[in-house]
Amino acid sequence: MSDSGTSVGEGDGTRAVRAGLPEAVKNEPTLPGPVFAAHYHLPGDVSGPYTYGRDDNPTWTLLERAIGELEAPAREDVETLVLASGVAAASAVLFSQVRVGDAVVLPNDGYQVLPLLRAQLEAYGVEVRTAPTANDAQLDVLDDAKLLWIETPSNPGLDTCDIRRLAEAAHARGALVAVDNTLATPLGQRPLELGADFSVASGTKQLTGHGDVLLGYVAGRDGEAMAAVRRWRKIVGAIPGPMEAWLAHRSIATLQLRVDRQCATALTVAEALRERPEVTGLRYPGLPDDPAHKVAAQQMRRYGCVVSFTLPTRARAERFLDALRLVDDATSFGGVRSTAERRGRWGGDAVPEGFIRLSVGAEDAEDLVADVLRALDESAE
Ligand SMILES: *Cc1c(COP(=O)(O)O)cnc(C)c1O
């Protein structure tokens, strides 16, 4: 929905800095400030666009345009809705599209809240099937499914699957296709152009990139399906605050700068880790010999900021995390400040005890690599 008339540039940087901006108005700011409103003046008969604050907000409208311009440049048929968090967005798609007796296909190696969503779907009488992300294994369990949920690259294992191939197979069976685009960001991957019906993401991660906002969104190209998502947002009330929406929009202006820097450094860090004998199971989709690279290269334009690897023991991994000075021991990913964690501390992910998920920030690559290598040295017995 690019009706602002300002998205004239073709490059990602140009698109990011101008995304969603309204027409310039003399004496007005370029990006209008957050609109704090529970209700709007509404004399007479009820008519839109802005009636009540849970239904719509002008600050959301600009952010939704911005995200839509990045997820599907030059496509007028795409609608974007922002929600309170990535999980709110995922729930909005899953629970608005399926009914008792429907079957849903999820990955079995995706985001750690998926098993909770699975349990809730099953409690509502929905059949849930799972398969791994790698090797397009979800293809084998698609028959009679209502909705296929894809997460590529998967979090935290960083496997990939072929979105176009899976979407074609799902559509041939009458299923809708949703892709979790959190890790890739719209600058890394455009699921709607690859055939998905929904691109769903957490804006909490690299999209906003500063670790200070929770946000989610759904972009979709089927009007009826998106109307159901909108209705779900209204009845559940999982809406972002105007301040969060405005901060997110402001942050998107630097998306291309951040993503390019963080991806380039992530590759450098992965290359440095590859030389270390204590590191096993190193994964980064941008490494040419990574098992995920072939599929990633055909559908991604950037490979993300997350690197994962395994250290020999839990104790070694904990000492490594303690020894890092430029990398905070914290969950989540995508922020300008590097973070890492021992993923096994949460339980739930099928990962070794020494498995580390490292999110590469915007620090200088030389500083970050030096810090990681020093922490590896210091954490050795
Ligand atoms: C974090 C994350 C989510 C959930 O997002 P929240 O904003 O934390 O609710 C969903 N999918 C993936 C892949 C994530 O990393």
From TrEMBL:
Catalytic activity, EC: 4.4.1.1
InterPro entries: Cys/Met-Metab_PyrdxlP-dep_enz, Cys_met_metab_PP, PyrdxlP-dep_Trfase, PyrdxlP-dep_Trfase_major, PyrdxlP-dep_Trfase_small
Pfam (any one): Cys_Met_Meta_PP
Top-level taxon of the source organism: Bacteria
PROSITE patterns: CYS_MET_METAB_PP
Cofactor(s) essential for the protein: pyridoxal 5'-phosphate
Assigned keywords, A-Z: Lyase, Pyridoxal phosphate
Top-tier EC class: lyase
GO MF terms, alphabetically ordered: lyase activity
PANTHER family (UniProt xref): CYSTATHIONINE GAMMA-LYASE-RELATED (PTHR11808:SF85), TRANS-SULFURATION ENZYME FAMILY MEMBER (PTHR11808)
Similarity comment text for this entry: Belongs to the trans-sulfuration enzymes family.
Full protein name: Cystathionine gamma-lyase
Native source species: Streptomyces cylindrosporus
